[in-house]
């Protein structure tokens, strides 16, 4: 079984011992998962396809990912208006090169966002950057 682990290996040549160790652990975990998958499935897929499906499911490579807000009831992630005439860059529009500035923000994420874009916002804390 040791030889089978390294046929589809993610092992890389590196001078850092901990990276080599981590790649080894990933290889063995993927091989063990594939063995369990084969034992519990009538028509198993090839090992390479299995590894690709595991990586895609962990990486979240969906075309239109489902954005879910943070834990309900925490009160941190909500749309609030900035004081005065202050404006922040909308983190949803900026990568799409659409409208840039917004008078609203999410205090839980520490970022500006338009009212129309709020439902598309991935809720996680963003560090403060200069030039709001």
- Percent of residues in helices comes to 25-40%
Distance N to C terminus: 55 Å
Q: Widest sheet: strand order? A: 1-4-5
Strand content: 5-15%
Poorly predicted parts: 69-73
Major beta-sheet overview: 3 strands, antiparallel
CATH fold topology of the largest domain:
Wheat Germ Agglutinin (Isolectin 2), domain 1
CATH C-level category of the largest domain: Alpha Beta
User: Which geometry do the CA atoms define?
Assistant: elongated
SSE arrangement, N to C: HHHEEHEEE
How many domains make up the coordinates? 2
Evaluate the radius of gyration. 22 Å
Q: Which architecture of the largest domain per CATH? A: 2-Layer Sandwich
> Care to count the β-strands?
5
Q: State the secondary-structure class.
A: alpha+beta
SS summary, helix count: 4
Give keywords:
alpha+beta, Wheat Germ Agglutinin (Isolectin 2), domain 1, 2 domains, 3-stranded antiparallel sheet, two-stranded antiparallel sheet, 33% helix, transmembrane helix, membrane, PiggyBac transposable element-derived protein domain-containing protein, transmembrane
Fold and architecture overview:
This is PiggyBac transposable element-derived protein domain-containing protein. It comes from Graphocephala atropunctata. Keywords: Membrane, Transmembrane, Transmembrane helix. With about 130 residues, this protein is an alpha+beta fold. The chain folds into two domains: about 60 residues, no CATH class; about 60 residues, Wheat Germ Agglutinin (Isolectin 2), domain 1 (2-Layer Sandwich). About 35% of the residues lie in helices and about 10% in strands. The chain is built from four helices and five strands. Strands 1-4-5 form a three-stranded antiparallel β-sheet, with no helix packed on it. Strands 2-3 form a two-stranded antiparallel sheet. A hairpin with a 4-residue loop joins strand 4 and strand 5. The longest helix is centred in the first third of the chain and has 23 residues. It starts with a helix and ends in a 20-residue tail after the last strand. About 10% of the residues are buried.
């Amino acid at each position: 079984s040791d030889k089978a682990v390294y046929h589809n290996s993610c092992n890389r040549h590196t001078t850092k011992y901990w990276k080599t160790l981590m790649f080894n652990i990933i290889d063995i975990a993927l091989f063990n998962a594939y063995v369990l998958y084969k034992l519990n499935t009538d028509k198993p897929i090839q090992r390479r396809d299995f590894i690709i499906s595991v990586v895609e499911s962990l990486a979240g490579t969906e075309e239109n990912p489902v954005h879910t807000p943070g834990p309900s009831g925490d009160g941190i992630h909500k749309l609030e208006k900035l004081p005065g005439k202050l404006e922040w860059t909308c983190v949803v529009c900026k990568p799409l090169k659409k409208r840039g500035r917004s008078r609203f923000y999410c205090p839980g994420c520490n970022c500006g966002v338009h009212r129309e874009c709020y439902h598309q916002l991935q809720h996680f804390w963003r560090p403060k950057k200069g030039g709001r």
